[in-house]
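Input chain follows. Return structure tokens only.
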Amino acid sequence: MVNNQNEQLNAVFHALADPTRRAMVARLAQSPCGISELAVPFDMTLAAVSKHIKVLESAGLVIRNVQGRNHTCQLDTRPMHGGIEWLRHYEQFWNQRLDALTAALIADDHAPSSKD
């Protein structure tokens, strides 16, 4: 059985792994915009920009509204919540490990030296 939640999480991380797509997400976080407007800061064709947008759409991060020849993209942050929860789990894991390391180092500092 395929886990749809894992597929969604994989798609989100894949989409956000690319710096161009992250820059597009950052731009769309300000306000919705058209594809040509979204393409301005990048040295690439509109076709290449459209491919990046399709990856973001596949991950559920972008909603494209089409009115005639105008395509407007809007950010949908809901799919990111799964990634945030996944990262939080590991943040807790590493915080526990770092707390244990800190405690061990403090105990080591207070232990009597074998040189004495």
